[in-house]
Amino acid sequence: MLKEVKTVGWDKTIDILLLLFLVSFPLMTSLFRVEMMSKCIIYIVFALSLDILWGKAGLMNLGQAMFFGLGGYVLALSYATRDGVPAFMSGFGVTEVPWFMQILHNTPVAVLLGMLIPGLVAGLLGYFIFTSKVKGVFFNIITLSLASLIELFFTNQQKYTGGANGISGLPPLTIGEEPLSVLEHYYVMLAVGLLVYLFCRWLTNSRFGMILRSVRENESRLQFLGFNPAAFKLSIFVISGMIAGLAGMMYIPIGSFVSPTNIGVGFSTAVLVWLAVGGRGNLTGAMIGAFLVTWLESLLSEHFENVWLLILGAAMLAVVMFFPKGLVGTLLDWQYCRRVDRQLGDVSCDDGLGLMDGELATAKGKV
Amino acid sequence: MAFLELQNVSVSFSGFLAVDQVSLTVDKGETRVIIGPNGAGKTTIIDMITGKTAPTSGKVLLGGADISGRNPHEIAGKYKVGRKFQGPNLFDYLTVYENIEVALAGHSSILKTFLYRKNRAISDEIKTILDQINLYGKRDVVSTSLSHGERQWLEMGMVIAQKPQLITLDEPTAGMTADETYKTGEMIKTMMKDKTVIVVEHDIDFVEQIAETVSVLHQGKVLAEGSFAEVKRNPKVVQVYLKDDDEAVA
Amino acid sequence: MELLISQSINGLSVSAMLFITALGLVIIFGLMDVVNMAHGEFIMIGAYVTYFVTTVFHAPFVVSMLMAFLATALLGALIELTLIRRLYGKVAETLLATFALSIILQQLVRMAFGPEDKFVGMPLEGRFNVGGIVIPHYNLFLIFVAVAILAVTLALFYKTPYGMQLRAVTKNRSMAQCLGVNTARIDTLTFACGSGLAGLAGALIAPVKSVMPSMGSYYIVDGFLTVVLGGFASIAGTAASSVVISESVTVMAGYMSEITAKVLVFLVIIVLIRFKPEGLFTTEKR
Question: What pTM, to 2 d.p., does this model score?
Fold first, then answer.
């Protein structure tokens, strides 16, 4: 019976349209644009990783790029050290690939570690943060600080990371000996992206996803229903970290390099902006935001690199002040109001409906 | 036999004794109302039973097990104690239906949230609860759109969905109209008929409507205990309440 | 051993800078629960003001300190009135808005004055030489200023009507309102004051570090860690934790890279906060 009153949400419709667009995109344009779009898909995966964390569970990670970067560096080091000591290491007198990098020679192991290491970092960090009694902005401050420190640390450890220049000249994906073409790369990325999307949809539609939203709305209430909120926050933080690590690895064959800019505060800020613009908590907003902002960025920064950052900052400010739910969030709110009006006729649809940020509720000092 | 037993429990907050050597036993299936003037320690007692506050000394026994100082989620999950907070405490931007669904008993570990499948039995159960609290028609509305009274009822529904052995209700009628208060009393009587219930309440008519036994708390101590009629006649109780009124006037 | 001693003396002057950096953050957070992500950019602007006042206009350093404080305080007040005011109680939105602001300010400065480093001359050139350990006069000056700021701030909070009103608002905003406290004005003043302190920190940092558009992001992390360890809203806690953090980092940096030392200190803080969530130096709960 419940099914009858529920209509298909516009978010799902937009998702399908986006998929159709991405599948047919190479038919419409040049290889250069296809390569740009491959990066876009990676950014979409990265945005999804933050949306299941921030949008669903209300945990605003200000340093999400650290997981992306960790994944990227793991795979990059695996490639770079395969044929002996790379130039950036031997320049510092390293004559032998250190033991912890030799493990990475096996590509499947490296790919696994590219997700497990970010997951482990998230797990340890999350354990200490979530089981502590400190609430609220503590999580934000700590994640931001860590991203900043990791960025400095990777820049500083030139011997192992190539310093500020990072690791470049990384190979594309291959079948046997044959490297994949731009088009093949594109569809591989799209396929992985689709799998991640389906996983995130499944995850957030499950009861687990519903509990995450309850954590966002009212964590302390949840305890009195027999749930351990810390365990849920920890799990989603680990999952989110692993997906971000995966996105970081996807970036390696497309971008062919990794550097501290992929791991630090700047890139972490970027993903926050995508979610803020698109609207968080419904996956679609994250994808649309990542798509629009990064596409616009590649178009605009080709010509005005300086102005771009200014535009980005101003756009972010404008969205926060005047459009706090983002593009898709606003749309879904409107649809929700229409549905409720149809069903009940008299419910006032005031400003406070739809997708909300749980931190707002905790800020008001509940319980 | 005693189902819930508080043995000489005290709670002090940085020197202030909120609960002072209270002993209380509640039998299985009983509906117990705790009354008392402001600051008598009523909510603190509920806090102790549900794990929000640990007793500074003394023990809380539930069905023979010592639960004092355990985590709220353990007490709620393992020992099946439900709590309705003073003033509705819900998941704001979840729908009415989802609020009940979250509360459903038996699916609270992470693994179980992954294995959970909504089947016929579950949707029937949710519908029954929503009917009992008169909110089935508003099941798809986010809970912030409800009126205050409806929000209170929704939280009662959540407590029922938890299938607790022991229900604690902290001022379930706070902020309700007289009509809503009466309806709430009937809800408690029908929905929680065979449960063990502890209610903290101010509204004397409401207490009379639901109470089987009443404990009167004053300045952190149990002042009197008995049926509503007995307690009402108890001179000490009358004095406390009258004295309190005097102070309020002065 | 000499390295240890000279590093710990050096650490004291770093503590002084860190304290002034973190103090503004703590005051703003403690009063209005606002985490100002643009705090680092206020530091940067303070440093640029100092560069212009001393290097371009050749005015004395003390003038530049005053100018840095006033300029950033004014900017802070403006930002509080136009942005922060509309976002009270919305933690995520405030973080995002001030984050956006930090990008904008940084980029504006980069476009106006170029990305390259600017240098500010040392206002005090002399140094003491005690048994082989060298202490620049400027380091002592930093410590002196930090102690003075601590004293002035405490006096402001506990001895003036403004401080009393401010503490009242911190404890119970609506009650303070009912008693006739103009909370809006207190908010603006406090945000301005916190921002001004950031500007002052920028002025003091300018002679010892290079002045550039992105310098702020470097200091804000240290500031955050100090705030966390100091217990989020306590001025005395902030003073204590800035000494602890700076001393550990500076002393350890004598034996390893500064970044590694910072990472280690960070990890220790995370573990400590797990077991003492109210911060190391506070006992009361806010």
Answer: 0.90
